Each structure stands twice: as C-alpha cells, then as structure tokens.
Amino acid sequence: MITIEEFKKKQTFKTRLIGLDLGSKRIGVSICDERQSIATPFKTIDRINTAHLIAELKEIIKENNIKGIVIGNPINMDGSSGSSAQSVKDISINISKSIDLPICLWDERLSTVGAFNLSKQLDVNISKKLKKIDENAAAFILQGAIDYLNN
Q1: 4-150: which CATH architecture?
Q2: Residue 34 — very low, low, confident or very high, per pLDDT cuts 50/70/90?
Q3: In sequence order, what are the residues at sequence separation of 6 or more whose Cβ sits closer than 8 angstroms to the Cβ of residue 90?
Q4: How far is the CA of 46 from the CAs of 53, 129, 134, in angstroms?
Q5: 70 forms bridges with which residues in the sheet?
Q6: Which of 59, 114, 115, 143 lies deepest, with the highest CB count within 10 Å?
Q7: Which DSSP string corresponds to 120-140?
Q8: Which candidate, 28, 101, 29, places its Cα nearest to that of 66?
C-alpha cells in the first residue's frame, strides 16, 4: 500500500479507479470515470472470504480497465486507529498481494452517514437506501479521494 501522494504520482490521464468500503458483512464498490471527475456506485459484494473478494475485484478490474484502488480507512473520529482500521489494513495487504495495482487507504470518517444523507436528499425510500448504502459509501469515499487527487 502507498500514500495518497504516491498514489497520485502513479496515475495517468484517462485512468479509472475503484473505491471500496470494506464492511463486516458487505463490501461496497464504486468506480470513477476516466477523467476521475465523478465516482459512481457500482455494486455490493457479500463478504464471504478474502479469496471471494479478490476474485470479484479481479473481474471488475478487468471488465472496467481499472488502474488503481482506493480503500476506505475507518479511523476513529479522534484520528486514532481501532480494530476496524486494523482489519481494513489487513485485508488491504491481502488484496495488494493478489492484485498488482496501486492501492491506498483514504479516510472514510462519516462516509456512511454522508451517503445516507445524500440518498435522503434524493428522496430515496428507506429500504432502497439500506440496500445501496455500502456502494453509496464506496462512492463517497472514492469521490473524496479523486477530489483530493484533482486539487
């Protein structure tokens, strides 16, 4: 894994990225456009095991010409790392051993809340909000990272 600054140096023009929200039961996936302007919710993967996740990611990467991975880092509100952040770091290391792309962690504080509030503003009913919350959170994470990369 690399820092967001190192990640930025490895990106080229017309590069699509994937964003991940690694939850304990589901993994939200988002993808951005080639100009890295807009992150779009893509899908939710049930968390079965790491091998299943890696297989799913490899397929998405191949089908969508992905050149980098941004993974939400669930650090605590005070900036410290807890057990969730350690779990994400461990899974991220496993992903990096199987997928040869630049991978960085991005602060995801409030991403689920932000995604939920955004869908609330769009007047989406509660069952649809909950069904799509993981991929919306992944889009929120990826959008934050690409906004940073573009500035």
Answers
A1: 2-Layer Sandwich (3.30)
A2: very high
A3: none
A4: 8, 17, 10
A5: 19, 104
A6: 115
A7: HHTT--HHHHHHHHHHHHHHH
A8: 101
